Amino acid sequence: MSLITDLPRSANALVCGASQGIGLALCTQLLARDDVVQVFAVSRQANQSPELAALARQHGQRLTRIDCDARDEHALENLARKVSATCPHLHLVLCTLGVLHDAPARAEKSLAQLDLASLQASFATNAFAPILLLKHLLPLLRHQPVTFAALSARVGSIGDNRLGGWYSYRASKAALNQLLRTASIELRRLNPAATVLAIHPGTTDTRLSRPFQANVAPGKLFEPAFAAQCILRLVASHGPEDSGTFWAWDGKSVDW
Predict the structure, then answer these.
(1) Residue 224 is assigned to a structural domain of this protein
(2) For the whole model, what pTM was predicted?
(3) What span, in angstroms and rounded, lies between the C-alpha atoms of 195 and 183?
(4) What sign for the dihedral angle of Cα 72, 18, 182, 250?
(5) Measured CA angle at 84 (ends 78, 87), to 5 deg
(6) What is the pLDDT of residues 53-82, one digit of tens each?
């Protein structure tokens, strides 16, 4: 299966949030493909990651590690310059950034637990960083088929919210969905071959979900490698006609 719809050549891919969890699994699987020529692995400490270092030893110049805090717009400007220095066009950008309970972000259970610092931290990582990443990489996405996909969450669905709680996380992921939907409309004008997707990867065994895994139904806690497979399958099966839509790991659309 082709990496993305109508891709006529080998792909250049960028993964933001690449040093652990789903992002690391995506880098591993992309580098295992014959139709991927270059992978840019981006995270705050990409060059200090032992796992990314191991991939670099295995794949050589096909993997470029770049340190970048995507919550810092100056860092994103530098990222875009570094990528464009060696790569004229990106075909796939995957943003796996997310925060739920790392202080000051918190998984609030009630209004009484809300505070400004938690809200700001959640929105900075979950909503602002992915859309600013798209903004700064836009010059590399204007030509040829390209897919930009960011990890959202089913709990960000307003229509699906029946339990409440997790105010900051729910709201920031809902904001991400709206930002991606809006960006998809602009990109459709700039590059009709562009696709923007919001993806719910399912509950995955990562640092984000670890404190809450006791409540996960049997068989519904996924390994990062499985989540990465599902994400790449979704990317491959959705093209420009689906741009601006929200999909779950199992191929089913998610209510906004």
Answers:
(1) yes
(2) 0.94
(3) 10
(4) negative
(5) 140
(6) 999 999 999 999 999 999 999 999 999 999
